[in-house]
Amino acid sequence: MLATHHLALINVFTGDIQGGLGPFLGTWLAQSAAWSPSRVGFVTTLVGIGSLLMSGPFGALVDRLGRPRLLIALACGAILCGTLLLLPARGVIPVFAAQMLAAAGGTLLLPAVTALTLGIVGKDRFPKQQGRNQAFNHLGILLAAGGIGLGTGWFGPAIAFWVLGGMAVLAIVATLTTPGHCYNARRAVGWQEDSDNKPERAGLRSIVSDRRLLVLAVALALFNLGNGGMLSLLGQKLVATAVDATSWTARYVMVAQLVMIPVALFAGSLADRRGRRQLLVAACAVLPVRAALSAFIDDPVWLISAEILDGVASGIIGVAVPVVVADLTWGSGRTQTALGSLNAIQGIGGALSAWYGGLAQSVLGWTGAFLALGAPALVALALVLWLDTTSEGRGTRRRDAAAETSSGEAAAPTQGTRKARRAPERKPETA
Predict the structure, then answer these.
(1) CB half-sphere exposure, 74, CA atoms < 13 A
(2) What DSSP letter does each residue of 157-202 carry, written as one string?
(3) Count of beta carbons in the 10 Å neighbourhood of residue 107
(4) Cα 353 to chain centroid, rounded
């Protein structure tokens, strides 16, 4: 079996487990323990803060250790244990402890899977492979949500725990059976593969002071402030209106993931042709429309339209962000450190989203809460538009092209010229 086939299986099985119970957590606690939206949001926010504090160190761990298969297996084990511990929990402290363990595993998964992908396929093939990774990732979530939706009538809301547990076990098996010789640690960070020299890693200051990364991080934090808690709040809204919230939440997840599959594949192929930042602009523009639909529509059937837009926005973000980070940090030996740090900053928005949405609901009602979640996305859109027109973006490529035309000399490497000037690399082993 090819190594890329193992990547597909890993992404299928980790797609559902990366966020733990995800949108089903609020529904589960509301039904089994009669938790209010504000209480769910408070605990979810605390867990989010804890996970974002781990993001940067976990990214650095992946860069330093260089054993992503081991780290993926450990992450899946932590998610499995944390989720199963949540099953009997009812109090704030047990729920918080269980969710923190699962969150630690989910935080480690993203940089570890990204490093494994880069080490197998290399930088040039990474955008398309990242699109495939995300497509399989969403397929896994779709399959899990389908199982939860079908099994809820027989086993109740607890079926979500057992589906997640089975996926975690299969993810561990798929990871540990990936051929080790197909992964190249030097290929994963952009160092010359056939050299014995070990380049010095870039300093952390060069990563945290990169203005492009900082603007991107703030924009994604605002995006997640609006996006992170929207589906969970929608599930709680359905509970309040005496609708079968668990089944409808599962259907919404299925619709969103079904849309994300073609969107991820399309975004992966479009990233090289149209540019990464334009994809981010499209994702940020979609979120306010989704928020408006969630605010003014009460019929659970018509709310499916909002989750179609969720599929578009999230499908694009999942592909574009790791590719942009790899572009900006390639060869530094700090790609996963930067990705983890970026996740930490944008995680602030995700961590605050559930609390922000719950607080807005208590003050403004359901309609006002969803409109409040859509507002930060408008600011994120403005930042990404600025990032796309800044001199580090299109302007740099235009100046470099002009310099090469007029002087015949190679200017500073850019995304469009880096491939042509790089020394020939060995073809990555995939079998």
Answers:
(1) 12
(2) TTHHHHHHHHHHHHHHHHHHTS-GGG--HHHHHT--TT----PPPP
(3) 27
(4) 15
- C-alpha–C-alpha distance, residues 180 and 21, integer Å: 31
Per-residue pLDDT of the chain (431 residues; tens, 9 = 90+): 778 888 999 998 887 676 666 666 766 677 666 677 777 777 777 887 788 788 889 988 998 888 899 999 999 999 888 888 877 767 778 888 888 888 889 889 989 999 999 989 888 888 889 999 989 988 887 787 777 777 766 776 667 777 888 888 999 999 999 887 888 777 787 776 666 666 666 666 767 677 888 888 889 999 999 888 788 788 777 777 656 777 777 778 778 878 888 998 888 888 777 677 788 888 888 999 998 888 888 777 888 888 888 889 888 988 888 888 888 887 777 888 888 888 888 878 877 887 888 888 888 888 888 888 888 988 999 888 887 655 344 434 443 443 444 334 433 444 444 443 444 444 444 43
CA–CA dist 300, 284 (Å, integer): 24
Sequence-distant (≥ 6) Cβ neighbours of residue 320 within 8 angstroms: 267, 271, 276, 277, 279, 280, 283
| pTM for the full predicted model | 0.74
* Among the listed residues 76, 316, 380, 336, the one whose alpha carbon sits nearest the alpha carbon of residue 188: 336
Exposure pattern of 6-30 as b/e (b: 16+ CB <10 Å)? Answer: bbbbbbbbbbbbbbbbbbbbbbbbb
